Amino acid sequence: MTLRDSEALSRFIQCCVAIQECYGKHEDTTKQAERSFPDCLILRYRRLLFRTKKILMSQITSQENDGLDSAIAKIWPSYRRSRGDQWTEQALCWLKTTTSNQDGTVKVQVHYNVITAELLVKGLPLGRLPSKYESHKDYTILFGRSSVDVMPSAEAGMKFSTRCSIQGHQIHLCYDSTRDDLIVRACKEENSWELVPSHLFEQQFPEHFAKKHIHWYNTAKGVVEFRPHHQPWISGESSWTLHRQEGLWVLQQSDTCLVGPFSRTGNQLHEVFRPLEKRSALHIFFDKAAASLLIKIPRLQLEFYMNEGSEDIMSHQYRGMRVDPQQSIGTLIGLDDKLVLVKVGDSQNRSVLIQIGNQIIQNHPLRIMSGSVYTTLLQGFNHTS
After folding, report:
1. What secondary structure does DSSP assign to 144-209, as a single string?
2. Are 311 and 322 in contact (CB under 8 A)?
3. CA 349, CA 334: separation in Å to the nearest integer?
């Protein structure tokens, strides 16, 4: 194989760029005594580049060999040479063309030096993201502790793009300093998603959905996908999606919809379960198929349900028992953190759910709370009137 072959030319350029990147990073920091042998190899490598200069320039500018395009696409997946543009010779050893975004509306200059193997986009070399990007909480969720190599982005409104695909996605990034938001656009095939800052949902949804999920706006479908933090790149039918329905935004998973914590239903149920849980940790769902409400308190591993046409709030864990409309038991006066259940059909058979925790006592008025924020234990007591 010779450099007249596109595949051979592509591999040669990829190797040259890799050497240039690696050697360039350590050239100034390596001790002189440790550089004698590597320097010898580098001199031989540079001599090879001088010898191949003429054939590289000829092959690439003749438009008969797409090896350079193939090499850059391997190094930088979002690269696509602009339609109608060719590689042209600039300043003896530089080649220039442009790359476009997906719809071809934005063009960015790309330069390649056949002598030094420097690859420049918008006049800038390959690099890392600024520290403010890597320290952002959304960056940690998406990339963990990894540092990603980036290049200037050809996408409108974006500053950087990742050199390598992340879970099959080409990632474009920017930073909004005024709001301290990391702006991310993920592209895969013909689809694209844009990151929605989680703080926009903190007053609209329970904490689990606002703080334990990453939120992607699917630009093609016009929906927001809620993905758990441990699966930020996986889009599936099992994901919760926020979509418009009859002029309202609905968070839905299959036939199950989330009931807003500040809706009329949410307010009414919050009053019932306030002794056990705060509003932001109370999960209320409507099951369309069963035509029933499901109330979950994940921290206490409790579930309740209401069937259509019934006012009874039934317990899953305590079979045959419902929330008693009469919460007074004639004792434990002032104990706030309790929920009274009563057996269906037997008003004398009652149970009291009390959280186990450190008590907080206030004398005026008399109140006793069981430290509900920090405990996950629950004790049930039978009570007979």
Report:
1. TT---EEEE--STT--EEESS-BTTBEEEEEEETTTTEEEEEEEETTEEEEEE-GGGGTTTS-HHH
2. no
3. 22
CA-to-CA separations, 331 to 37, 327, 383, in angstroms, rounded: 87, 11, 10
The answer to whether 31 and 39 are in contact (CB under 8 A) is: no
Burial class (CB in 10 A: 0-12, 13-18, 19+), 342: buried
Cis amide bond preceding 365, omega within 30: yes
Q: What is the DSSP string of 69-94?
A: HHHHHHHSTT--BPTT---EEETTTE
For residue 307, what is the DSSP state?
E
Residue with tokens 């031989």, as numbered in its chain? 44
Which of 269, 266, 194 lies closest to 257, judged by CA?
Answer: 266
Residue 381: strand pairing partners:
352
Q: Give the tens place of pLDDT for each residue, 306-344.
A: 999 899 999 999 999 999 998 887 776 667 788 999 999
pLDDT by residue (tens digit) across 69-124? 999 998 887 788 888 889 999 888 999 999 887 776 778 899 999 999 999 988 88
At 238, is the secondary structure helix, strand, or coil?
coil
Query: Which of 254, 163, 170, 261 lies closest to 210, judged by CA?
Result: 261
